[in-house]
Specification:
alpha/beta, Rossmann fold, 12 helices, 14 strands, 38% helix, globular, binds guanosine-5'-diphosphate, binds calcium ion
Length: 315
């Protein structure tokens, strides 16, 4: 069957959290013309701290696409200094959330523009322009849509669990808001999408919060043969962060096969790592088994290219 999509004109939408999402988004940004690429980013991790509105996943994606990211940590700015937060600690203020001096400039600017009445979508566009980012980076929603983590006898705000308690309390349940609505910009981009790529982000606290925002999930379900996910689990482990631990605590297998099963019918294609070769059975789901670890910039481009080729093949 001839390909109905043309790689130079197809509209690509990537759903992304922070570290894993930003790396694939960066690879895609080096291949897809900017007017054809949209990154829809999780805002379930956003919170108010020290009077500032902090959007960790949006910032991780912006710093990666703006080429100012700290590639060692995967989050925060390259060449960062920590004078302000160290002084906050000395003054008895809350210093558990790592805020670098350069990073603080983002939060100050964002908070100022939000207080002037702009939407988070408009503020993100403003920041992206100043980081010379061309593809559209869109928050999934303009409303606050906080993810809450239920652990032993407590329900914690996401960053309290993730950073302050170093994701150690066991996760029993994840609470997502029931009234989250997508922005008109998100809906318009999904309406025109030829391909939706679910980045190798945490399925439970990065991707689910996006899918939970109405009407993102039903819009994806309506797309013909065009939703492809990349596994964040390699060799039964997360590359970084709590995804594997959460799967275990929620009684799931820790494997790329379990990630594919978790996304279920939403997916038309699934990309998993060569280390897990043979672990997935070919059913209705189209499979691609390649190297999915992104250490270098070249790795990001290679994986993005593999995912785009695969999506073209199955569309
Ligand atoms: P967070 O919001 O910063 O936690 O980042 P994400 O949710 O976007 O990404 C976290 C997930 O990315 C983890 O489950 C990791 O296993 C996965 N991840 C990170 N780097 C890579 C990589 O290079 N390849 C793959 N396949 N997954 C990765
Ligand atoms: Ca995150």
């Amino acid at each position: 069957m001839p390909n109905q999509l043309d790689r130079t004109t197809m509209n690509v939408v990537c759903l992304a959290g922070g570290v894993g999402g930003a790396k694939l988004a960066d690879g895609l940004a080096r291949l897809v013309p900017p007017q054809n690429l949209t990154i829809i980013v999780n805002t379930g991790d956003d919170f108010q701290h020290l009077g500032l509105t902090i959007c960790p996943d949006l910032d991780t994606v912006m710093y990666a696409l703006g080429d100012v990211a700290n590639v060692e940590t995967g989050w925060g700015r390259a060449g960062e200094s920590w004078h302000t937060i160290a002084e906050v600690g000395r003054l008895g203020g809350p210093d558990w959330f790592h805020l670098g001096d350069l990073d603080l400039a983002t939060h100050l600017t964002r908070t100022h523009l939000l207080q002037e009445g702009q939407t988070l979508t408009a503020v993100t566009r403003h920041l992206c322009r100043h980081f010379h980012i061309q593809p559209d980076v869109l928050p999934m929603s303009d409303q606050p849509t906080p993810t809450l983590i239920e652990t032993d006898g407590r329900i914690l705000p996401f960053q309290t669990w993730f950073v302050q308690e170093r994701w150690q309390p066991p996760v029993h349940k994840i609470h997502l808001p029931t009234d989250a609505r997508a922005t008109p910009q998100v809906a318009a981009r999904l309406e025109k999408a030829d391909l939706v790529i679910i980045a190798p982000s945490n399925p439970f606290v990065s991707i689910d919060p996006i899918l939970n925002v109405y009407p993102i999930r039903p819009m994806l379900e309506d797309l013909p043969r065009a939703v492809v996910a990349v596994s964040p689990i390699i060799g039964g482990q997360a590359v970084k962060g709590p995804a594997a631990k959460m799967m275990q605590e929620m009684g799931m297998d820790v494997s790329s096969a379990a990630v594919a099963a978790y996304y279920g019918d939403l997916l038309d294609g699934f990309v998993y790592d060569a280390q897990d070769d043979g672990l997935l059975a070919q059913g209705d789901l189209a499979l691609l088994c390649v190297d999915t670890l992104m250490h270098t910039s070249a790795d990001r481009v290679r994986l993005a290219q593999d995912v785009l080729n695969f999506a073209l093949e199955i569309s």
